[in-house]
Design a protein that fits this description.
The chain is of the alpha+beta class. Among the domains are: about 60 residues, Calcium-transporting ATPase, cytoplasmic transduction domain A (Distorted Sandwich), CATH 2.70.150; about 140 residues, HAD superfamily/HAD-like (Rossmann fold); about 110 residues, Calcium-transporting ATPase, cytoplasmic domain N, CATH 3.40.1110.10. The chain is about 50% helix and about 20% strand. The protein has 21 helices and 22 strands. It has a 7-stranded mixed beta sheet, sandwiched between helices. Helix 17 links the parallel strand 20 and strand 21. Helix 2 runs antiparallel to helix 3. The longest helix is centred in the last third of the chain and has 35 residues. The two termini are about 25 Å apart.
């Protein structure tokens, strides 16, 4: 509990003691105790009401509470006036505690940021701020310290706790040459790490930026409540004025009787249960998702998650591990090693995972000069004075090379030609991620209308993956612009969720109804463009995100129904004189507390789904 909350609790206790004394003491002594109870508990509310009036903000909950309680005192209803303010502040305390708890659940991620880093500069060890570390500098990380930027280990072996970044519960053993992410904790051994990114572009900085900006995007439900409260509060104030003036004028009844009913009407009408509990529900849902290593960028994304419609997948790095290996080589007119060397010499400048697999399989270091790199097609390079082409079937065909098509196999096929003569082809394959078949089935279990696989790979390779996973629709051989066109076609009649990880997926992630990026291995562009980021790179977390979104929306709607339903009943009863100020207190503060407690259930949604 914060210092401010402790002060409020102390005021509530003092006010409650005076309120009880007011019930015991006779006459004006009791009335004095009630007024003092109101002053201790309600002066801050009255001051806010006055300050807001001076700034042109007339109709808010502070104004309603102050007007109703002062009116009750004017009618000598001292106990009712003091009780309204006392219980209102109790509700405010519950609200503050609930909001702080939600914020703490998300702000725990802020612990990812290390306080400092030790770098080697001119042979000396210097302690600097994380954002002062430059790309290429060597960082020393001792046991128990947190890695400050993304990098590659140059010396040392250790076990890393990566749970806060990837969700992996078991320590991960790393050594020289292994890439490491910022935010991971070194559990054992001294490490020397070469920084591959500045702090601002590191994994941990991206995560924190996503968390800090998540609440800026309000969901339609949240926006509705904000607009509703803006019109609702002036409407009930006008209704209360009419309630206390028209019956005495038209029916010649007691003005004090209808004034009391109007004050009851004002107390009931306070919209705090709605205004607080619905955003709190969304905030709690996002906090629960973050504990399951799912970052949701605001209420809009969370609400869209609840009804994904069609789910569209990229293949490489999304459904597969993205770790390629050369599975088979077919050489014509040369040896397999010569073919691998030609391909490696051409592909050495390409960042594509397939190129890296060919380089890893090359018998020795290749020598070549890049002439042209056509993303989605292939590369042209000069190797030992010969023009070498390495790419897909379409690329070599457009270049006028007659090839022997490898049409009976899954995997990615790289065709190689030298000076216009076909030399052979290399089959590179990728393995499926663990539990990915269960992830697809879980989506069908949750009522997803259809699943689609979009990929730039060969038809046979893509269809093999789709068949293994039960994905119903397949589109292969697509360039980045083809993926955009296909998604636009799907969006004409459907809500579409797209799941991807690469740079070329960024336009599609932005275009989709809701875009989900793989945050661990995904590119910066994909993570930036997506609405949801899976830090653990596990497709099965998509179903978890949908479950959390649906539970959050259900709780938010429950709060709307509870608050409006109870208030509507008590407003009618108050206008008829059946409900008094005490029932009004319940309808306002009691319903607010119930709604807040109900909203706080969202904080534990991740436990419900096994995380």
């Amino acid at each position: 509990m914060s210092r401010k909350q402790k002060k409020l609790l102390l005021r509530i206790i003092c006010s409650a003691v005076l309120f009880l004394l007011g019930l015991i003491l006779p006459g004006w002594f009791g009335a004095g105790a009630m007024i003092l109870s109101w002053i201790i508990c309600g002066w801050s509310v009255a001051w806010k009401a006055i300050r807001n009036l001076l700034h042109g903000q007339l109709f808010d909950e502070n104004f309603l509470m102050t007007l109703a309680t002062v009116g009750a005192f004017a009618l000598q209803q001292f106990s009712e006036g003091a009780a309204v303010m006392l219980f209102y502040q109790v509700g405010e305390l519950f609200q503050a505690i609930a909001v702080d708890r939600s914020r703490r659940s998300i702000s725990q991620l802020m612990d990812l940021r290390p306080d400092s880093a030790v770098v080697l500069r001119d042979g000396e060890e210097l302690e600097v701020e994380p954002d002062e570390v430059q790309v290429g500098e060597l960082i020393l990380v001792s046991p128990g310290e947190r890695i400050c930027v993304d990098g590659v280990i140059r010396s040392g072996n250790a076990d890393l706790d990566t749970s806060r970044i990837t969700g992996e519960s078991m320590p991960v053993s790393v050594g020289p040459g292994d890439a490491v992410l910022s935010g991971c904790v070194n559990l054992s051994g001294n490490l020397t790490i070469e920084a591959t990114s500045e702090y601002g572009q590191s994994t941990v900085a991206r995560i924190l930026d996503l968390v800090e900006n998540a609440q800026e995007k309000k969901a339609p439900t949240e926006q509705f409540i904000t607009r509703f409260a803006r019109w609702y509060t002036p409407a009930v104030v006008i209704a209360a004025v009419l309630l206390c003036t028209l019956p005495p004028l038209l029916l010649h009844q007691s003005f004090s009787l209808w004034l009391k009913r109007a004050l009851t009407f004002l107390v009931v009408s306070c919209p705090c249960a709605l205004v607080i509990s619905v955003p709190l529900s969304f905030f709690g849902g996002m906090a629960a998702a973050s504990k399951a290593n799912i970052l949701i960028k605001g209420g809009v994304a969370l609400e869209e998650l609840a009804d994904p419609g069609i789910v569209v997948f990229d293949k490489t790095g999304t459904l597969t591990t993205g770790t390629f290996r050369v599975a088979e080589v077919r050489a014509y007119g040369c040896t397999e090693n010569e073919l691998l060397l030609l391909a490696a010499a051409a592909e050495q400048y390409s960042p594509h995972p397939v190129a890296k697999a060919i380089l890893a399989a090359s018998p020795h270091a290749p020598v070549g000069t890049l002439i042209e790199d056509r993303p989605g097609f292939g590369v042209t390079a000069l190797v030992n004075g010969k023009t070498v082409l390495a790419g897909n079937l379409r690329f070599l065909s457009e270049c006028g090379v007659e090839v022997r098509e490898w049409a009976d196999s899954a995997g990615t096929i790289v065709y190689v030609a030298s000076d216009g003569t076909f030399c052979g082809c290399i089959r590179v394959e990728d393995s499926l991620k663990e539990h990915v078949d269960e992830a697809i089935q879980a989506l069908y279990d949750r009522g997803v209308k259809d699943t689609v696989l979009l990929s730039g790979d060969r038809k046979q390779s893509v269809e093999a993956v789709a068949k293994a996973l039960g994905i119903r629709n397949v589109y292969s051989g697509l360039l980045p612009q083809d993926k955009v066109s296909k998604l636009e076609e799907l969006l004409k009649n459907n809500r579409v969720m797209f799941v991807g990880d690469g740079v070329n997926d960024a336009p599609v992630l932005t275009l989709a109804t809701v875009g989900i990026a793989m945050g661990g291995i995904g590119s910066d562009a994909a993570v930036e463009a997506a609405d949801v980021v899976l830090l653990s790179d596990e497709p099965r977390r998509i179903a978890t995100a949908i479950d959390i979104a649906r539970s959050t929306l259900r709780i938010a709607r429950e709060n709307i129904i509870i608050a409006l339903g109870v208030k509507a009943i008590v407003l009618i009863l108050g206008a008829l004189g059946i409900a008094g100020m005490w029932l009004a207190v319940f309808a306002d503060v009691g319903v607010a507390v119930i709604a807040i407690l109900n909203a706080m259930r969202t904080l534990r949604l991740h436990e419900k789904h096994g995380f």
